[in-house]
Amino acid sequence: MDLREITREQKMIGAAIAMLIFVVSLFLKWQSVGQFSSSGADVGSWPLALIIALVAGGLLAAEGLGIALPWRVPTTTLALYLMSLLVFYVVVFILAIDGLAYGIWLALIFAMIGLALSVSLYRDDTR
Length: 127
Hints:
Elements (H helix, E strand, L loop, with lengths): L7 H18 L3 E5 L2 E4 L6 H19 L10 H22 L5 H25 L1
Antiparallel strand pairs: 1-2
């Protein structure tokens, strides 16, 4: 799929939706070993990931919907940075834990989708 065919607003809303699904994936099963299982919300740093996803998705959703923010922020640059942190966050847990379950894979997929859309937005802005 060529991201150049998607409008700027569609990319922003798509990345915001990806962040919303990432938030949902935090509450799904990330690890399953025998009878033991845990979700992303059982990880001690999950509130940080939640805040990062909500801020990144909220900024892009606000700009994509034409809502004026009370302060001037470089939306695409900040969203790109925050989404790269989320990808790093998930990859660290993929490398650190055994018995990976479906929730962590969904988190990785939607963090990567948000990151890809943010990279496309950033590249469009810097041209």
